[in-house]
Give the backbone structure.
Amino acid sequence: MKVVQWLLPVAVAWWLRQGGAHTMAGDCATKCGDVDVPYPFGLELHCARSQEFFLNCTTEGNHTQLLGANGGNIPIRNISVEDATMVVSVPEAYTCYDPDGQATVSREVALDLSSYPPYRFSDTRNKLTVLGCNTYAFMSDRDGTFVSGCRTNCNHSIDWANDTTCSGLGCCQTSIPKSSNGLKILDIRIRSLDGEDKEACGLAFVVDDRSFNISNRKFPTLKEVGKSSDLVLDWMVEWDVTCKNVSLKQSGYACGNNTDCHDFPNGPGYRCSCKPGYNGNPYNRSHGCQDINECKEPQVYPCHGKCRNKLGNYTCDCSFGKMGDGKVSCQIAQWVVLVAVIIMAFFFITISALVFVTWRRRSKQKNFRRNGGELLKHHRVQIFTEAELAKATNNYNDSNKLGEGGFGSVYRATVAGGTMVAVKKPKDLHKSLVKGDFQHELEIVMQINHKNVVRLHGICLETRIPLLVYEYISNGTLFQHIHQNASTILRSWKNRLRIATEVAIALAYMHSCAEPPIIHGDIKSVNILLDQNHSVKVSDFGTSVLISPEHSHIIATEIQGTLGYIDPEYLTTGMLTIKSDVYSFGAVVVELLTGKKPTSFITKSGESINIIHYFISSVKDKTLSDVINFEVASEDEMERVGLAAEIATKCLDQSGAKRPVMMEVAEQLTRINQEHNNSVEEENKETESEVDKENL
């Protein structure tokens, strides 16, 4: 039995085809059951653009369906104005066989759209689908201009529950051919190849390939036939003109605002679509295509930055500090990375600097308290800050370095008021070497006011080992005058005797006039300064008060080049006494008389002898004239040189108990110096008297 299905009704109103009702009234229904009915379609004549778009909404019992008008009974499942398609439900062709292999029931389907110009079978969405074993189906147009089909292969029933597409096993598919004017007629026929599969059925139907899922179908039996499947139709709003032609007559143009016109690919006719960035019904002139606010639909229109909606489009700018296409992705800009690195580095440096400054400040405060700053700041002691002395010495620049000893280095500095001072910066000794009660002794030292002692100007307590600040003496050291400068002041015995006497007086003052006695601990020619008048200034006497007696031997072993001045008894016992200064003074007198360093050696009879031992033996052997390095004016002067040498020999005794005290030494040298001055005065008077007699 052959069934011909007419999909859509014939024309009932000629004036509708002439465009007499191109707009949709505000009271038109737009839904039939679950199916939307958008313009240009309508459920009433005045709501449709033309008769071809007039549809009928019917209700039977509780079931509502959308049908073609004027007797058309093909259900419409969906209408889309976006892609101009319509999904309709059409019968499936089938054939079934009895146990004898004879066809019992069958149906062929003829689909004809020739009387309905707007519609074509979609050659992009539909496929001929065949189900069954060894079943062949084909489709053709009525004139036989094309024939296309496919066959299935199988020997038994197939379960497609786990399949999604046809594989050829019990199911096959083929596409609908394209036509220059669009395909409007399809005849579907189905056959069994050999009829061996008894009591079986075969199905053939044109179906929407997008929605078709083989897993939803069962192998065809007599119970499964007689159903319908969804087929897709393409439709055009106008079918006899192109976009180019219709745009010239604006009165009949179907596309609304913000739309594009598209020619139908298979023959004349056109469709409308919203421009990119707009959505809605492109055929509704009043409320058709509206701008899409892409910023409110980030899942559809991605934006990884700052979104701004525009008519028909949107912009997406990467946020500050990022670069790239915001619609695709945004990456951190290189300059941001650079700035971040700089900021982190600056932050780290700043934090480090703050930590260092805080640590330095607390360290200074700790040193100040530990070194007795709270006690000394209430006494007549000038206290300098570490920063003041660093600035005054140009950060202890070598150009300001005056000398270096075992305890530390001395730098020239200019403090507030333009006063020149000498800053002694000690070596970084362990804090256990610093006497705990040195503050009291230091205060006593700072009260010393003697013409032959370098005045201690002040102290800095912010360092671990306090910095000592002395008055500045500009004429160099006795060491320089003896060994480096070939000084003219040492050519005469008188000046040498005066220097030795002034040194003895200074030491006697520290040993006898201070309570407790102040032990210098490092008497040597380097620590004996000469001012502009060549008067003696004993320096570095404050060093001893900063060193704990029990650790003094450690310092002594570190004083390179001064071993010749150190008391051998002190090196043995580690005990620093006033007699230690006496021995050192004796070594200075030997250096002053011989012009040789106390560590020097004399070769005699092929044997090397230390200058001090050689000097002592020369005094005993009365051969002192072989040792001294200056000219003696007379026997009387040589006798006084011998007296001074004997005093030096006593000072150099290996036993500290046998050495004289400095007060005694100073008195003896003062007496010798006075006798020398008196002798010189008498000689001058005699010379003047002889000159007067000659003049007479």
Observations:
- The CA atoms of residues 211 and 573 lie 111 Å apart.
